[in-house]
Specification:
Strand order of the largest sheet: 4-3-2-1-8
Largest sheet: 5 strands, antiparallel
Number of helices: 44
Oligomer: single chain
Distance between the termini: 95 Å
Radius of gyration: 35 Å
């Protein structure tokens, strides 16, 4: 923590080609901002503030870091960072001179500057119902931290979006600092969200949704703006839209990618803060869900101006999980100067003296009291306050022991003992109240607490008021509603108090309170109050009501998919599937197991690809369906399992799943069963080379999809992408295989229109994928390259892991055709390996064919044969015959290069026969034209060539048809 006096005027000076503006935290070089993280920036300001003066290492460590837990090597690293940015050579310094073994001095001449930056115009921040927090209470030792918050708010008001964390151990005073900061902004709009600790990842975007809901209650303009630019967020606040609007949004947002919610909220905040600055507070970010943390990262990197300050509190030592995303987020944003972290240190002895002077005025002159408090508490404000209250209480009740001795005697060896001491002094009604509140959470609604304990609301409110007045256990949150609001909240003064109370409960009592809390919240939810399924699941889980918990875990997991947050769905289903093992076999258990496993399969595919995790989850659901096939998710489970089998090139298994779905469809009215059968069967048949049957099957799905998507009650949660766009895209590829290129293009246009209408990135990627495959079959190199570029843009923007490999092998194919086979082969080989790592084996024979072709172009015959042999092995192993004709033609090219025209002609004839067997006239024509290059065709082959040119009327303008016509003009039938 920097010790520079907050009363020093902010620097604004020029030195060399640089300009330093301390108030706005800017370092400019020729007028352009230079990124410099907060600590090096503070160090540079410290040096410049005393130009030409030697500042020792100890002085710099004390002023910039407070000399706590920081070694001289850290100072050396920060100096090195500054020198790198300034381009300063330490051997011939122009800015910072090293004084060996002593310290550093700033040696460049300074030129004071007038403030010349142009801030954004100020905006009125008051609303009809302004938010205020009490400015009463003691505030000691945090003046500099408060000044940094105020500076960040000023920068935010000028359009420089600020991401700020207040960090410190439990009890260090984070919430107090934030409350005082808000108290100094009486006419500012600020909203608040609380992170909570739940099983799994918890509710996606929970603190943000809480804050946005508060904003919408306070400002009606926010509702209309949300409806216009952030419909996926509006969907999560159902009380703001009608049932009809909600159903419309559900259909429009099917398959939307999680990145959409990031973009929409960023746009909403930018638009909203264009009218007035906004302070968004999220407390306890160490319990923040991954989606909220991802939103913070996204906003921090957004280049557009915004008068937003996102202020969060965090414990540096939590979460304890090493790979929690908060760790990486804090390091990345601080390291890149995109976020500012204000660390709070324990009180110094002088600050404890100030606290004693204000909190204990009658004992201010007692010798050694402040020193004793500081020594015994380590200066942690929470401990200081608790022990001070204890000393005052003991003295008031007649204990005439010297206060300093009281401090040393009364303070327990650990915090737990201290809190237990206070717990022991509670009356039974108060202990009962606080125990129930600890089960409910950090922030509690008074009426909910009354329901759980069976007390009257009036009696509960009086007890809470008494505890708040004592300033030890509870506090009143910042006012958010009027005093008459029946849902008034209380909160613990610190999480440690709440946690110790919770841990001190006996297991039976804790379970009973969780069970009662779950039942109470369930009843309130039925009456229309906002209670999340994840919260109910946690309470019933810990309350030993596993069947109810499982039902809510399934509901919360489905909501997570609807939120476009598959990672949260994975966490929730993981806990649910562990819990389900404790339940005896029954129809109810099997029902919940099918739901959880199906949702987990969908989430696993989105997060991990087509690997074993997704397959195992879908298979688990399918196995249970043997015992209850009428489950509502039967169609979705079988579709997911069959689709996964097809992606893994397990085509017989995929067809078996499709047959099972058709058999069940004969007895059930679930339209997803027919949809699963048609799409899975169509995809598998196409990959096996049965293109006519694939076309027929896929076309059967189209009218069904149109009817299904007009239904008011149906949604496609759990699908990888919009089924209609997917089926149209697959159908276009089947038509292209059959040589019906005009029809294929028409279906592609329909697929594009559908995907773009819904703005679904995954659906758009699938359509681009199939379009590129069609382009390769037509030899449209420029088009395939353009599609690869579009796919790459989409993949990068929305982090679509499943599209990372395809765009690269399509680009590699285009590079090969354009005479860059070396680059093409490298791209294709690596993309093929990366795709297999995701478990996506389907289409691997075609990708290896691209690789073999690129190696042929390089005349790397041996390597080309190896790649071709791998592709043919996949054909043999999986029955993936879709590109077998092309592979045989590559074999003929390799044989011709080896000086064996007979073998080349044989391979070309085999390719022709395979194309005829697959009923793919385009490939048959290509095989015959290749054969003509090796030997004279037979009369039957000439006749076949003529028949194919007539049959392929839709391809009359292609180079291949032109070549065929030239051959016929010189053949035995020519006039």
């Amino acid at each position: 923590m920097s010790k520079i006096s907050s009363t020093s005027p902010p620097l604004h000076v020029r030195f060399g080609d640089f300009e330093l503006d301390e108030r706005n935290a800017r370092l400019l070089h020729h007028g352009h901002a230079v990124p410099l993280s907060p600590i090096p920036f503070c160090l540079l300001c410290t040096l410049i503030r005393e130009p030409g003066v030697l500042l020792t290492k100890d002085e710099l460590l004390d002023r910039v870091w407070g000399h706590r837990f920081v070694s001289a090597s850290v100072l050396k690293g920060a100096i090195s960072d500054i020198r790198t940015l300034l381009g300063d050579d330490p051997r011939q310094p122009g800015f910072i001179e090293t004084v060996s073994r002593r310290g550093y001095r700033f040696i460049c001449p300074l030129h004071p500057q007038e403030t010349g930056l142009s801030p954004l115009p100020p905006a009125t921040t008051s609303l009809p119902m302004s938010q205020r927090t009490s400015s009463s209470g003691i505030f000691v030792g945090r003046e500099q931290a408060l000044a940094r918050l105020q500076d960040a708010w000023q920068r935010a008001g000028q359009g420089l979006r600020a991401i700020v964390w207040v960090a410190g151990e439990p009890g260090i005073g984070k919430s107090t600092l934030i409350a005082r900061f808000c108290a100094g902004l009486p006419d500012t709009l600020w909203i608040r969200g609380q992170c909570v600790q739940l099983h799994g990842a918890g509710e996606p975007y929970l603190p943000v949704l809480e804050a946005i809901a508060e904003l919408c209650r306070r400002d009606e303009e926010a509702v209309s703006l949300l409806r216009r630019v952030a419909p996926t967020w509006l969907l999560q606040l159902p009380w703001l839209c009608s049932l009809a609007q909600r159903e419309t949004l559900l259909h429009e947002l099917v398959g939307a990618h999680p990145q959409r919610m990031l973009r929409e909220m960023s746009e909403f905040l930018d638009c909203y803060t264009a009218r007035r600055p906004l302070l968004l507070i999220t407390e306890d970010l160490h319990w923040g869900d991954p989606s909220t943390l991802q939103l913070i990262d996204y906003l921090a990197r957004r280049p557009s101006p915004s008068r937003l300050m996102w202020l969060g509190s965090v414990r540096p030592d939590e979460p304890l999980v090493p790979d929690h995303p908060l760790h990486a987020l804090r390091q990345a944003l601080r390291g890149q100067g995109l976020g500012e972290e204000i660390g709070l240190a324990p009180f110094s002895e002088q600050e404890v003296s100030s606290y004693v002077r204000e909190r204990m005025p009658t004992m201010n002159t007692v010798p050694g009291l402040a020193l004793a408090l500081h020594e015994r508490t380590g200066g942690v404000p929470l401990f200081v306050a608790a022990l001070a209250s204890e000393v005052m209480s003991l003295t008031a009740y007649g204990d005439d022991t010297e206060p300093a001795r009281l401090v040393r005697r009364a303070l327990p060896e650990s915090l737990a003992a201290l809190i237990d001491h206070h717990v022991a002094r509670l009356t039974e009604p108060r202990r009962r109240l606080l125990a129930a509140a600890a089960v409910l959470g950090m922030r509690v609604q008074v009426d909910t607490l009354a329901w759980v304990l069976g007390d009257s609301l009036m009696e509960m409110a009086q007890q809470c008021e008494a505890l708040i007045r004592e300033r030890l256990w509870l506090m009143a949150p910042a006012p958010e509603t009027s005093a008459e609001d029946p849902h008034r909240c209380i909160q613990f003064r610190h999480q440690l108090f709440r946690q110790r109370l919770y841990d001190g409960l006996s297991a039976p009592l804790r379970g009973a309170l969780h069970g009662k809390t779950g039942s109470t919240l369930e009843a309130l939810r039925a009456e229309g109050q906002e209670v999340t399924a994840a919260e109910l699941a946690m309470h019933f889980d810990r309350g030993h009501a596993p069947m109810k918990a499982l039902g809510y875990y399934a509901e919360a997991a489905e909501a997570a998919l609807l939120h476009l947050c598959p990672a949260e769905c994975m966490s929730l289903t993981a806990r649910g599937l562990i819990l389900i093992e404790q339940i005896p076999e029954s129809a109810a258990r099997h029902t919940l197991e099918i739901s959880l496993a199906t949702l987990r399969g969908a989430a696993a595919f989105h997060t991990l690809g087509a690997g074993e995790e997704a397959r195992h989850a879908y298979q688990r659901a399918a196995d249970r369906l043997a015992e209850m096939s009428a489950h509502p998710m039967t169609g979705l489970a079988l579709h997911g399992l069959g689709f996964l089998h097809a992606l893994r090139a397990e085509y017989p298994e995929a067809l078996a799943v499709a047959a099972r779905a058709r058999a069940l469809a004969a007895t059930q009215a679930d339209p997803l069963l027919i949809l699963a059968a048609c799409t899975v069967q169509g995809q598998a048949l196409m990959m096996q080379g049965h293109h006519g049957a694939a076309r027929e099957t896929l076309e059967q799905a189209l009218p069904l999809l149109e009817r299904t998507q007009t239904g008011a009650e149906h949604s496609f949660i759990g699908f990888i992408a919009d089924p209609q766009a997917t089926v149209l895209a697959l159908l276009s590829l089947s038509l292209a295989q059959l040589g019906l290129f005009a029809q294929a293009r028409a279906r592609l246009q329909q697929a594009y229109a559908r995907a773009r209408q819904l703005a679904q990135p995954m659906a758009q990627m699938i359509v681009l994928w199939c379009d590129a495959l069609c382009g390769i079959r037509c030899g449209e190199v420029a088009r395939v390259a353009a599609l690869a570029g579009e796919m790459r843009t989409l993949v990068d923007e929305f982090a679509l892991a499943q599209g990372q490999a395809p765009w690269r092998w399509f680009q590699g194919w285009a590079d090969t055709q354009w005479g860059r086979p070396h680059e093409g082969a490298h791209q294709i080989r690596q993309a093929y390996l990366d795709n297999r790592a995701l478990g996506m084996i389907s289409g691997g024979s075609e990708t290896l064919g691209y690789l073999a072709e690129a190696l042929v172009r390089q005349r790397e015959w041996h390597q080309a044969q190896e790649a071709l042999d791998q592709a043919l092995a996949l054909v043999q192993r999986h029955g993936e015959r879709i590109v077998l004709p092309q592979l045989l033609l590559i074999q003929s090219t390799i044989a011709q290069a080896a000086g064996d025209p007979l073998a080349a002609a044989t391979s070309a004839r085999e390719a022709f026969e395979e194309a005829q067997a697959q009923d793919t006239p385009w490939l048959a024509l290509l095989a015959l034209i290749t054969l003509c290059a090796y030997q004279t065709p037979t009369r039957a082959e000439w006749n076949a060539l003529a028949a194919l040119t007539t049959q392929l009327a839709e391809a009359k303008d292609t180079p291949l048809l032109a070549q065929a016509h030239r051959l016929l003009a010189t053949g035995p039938s020519a006039p």
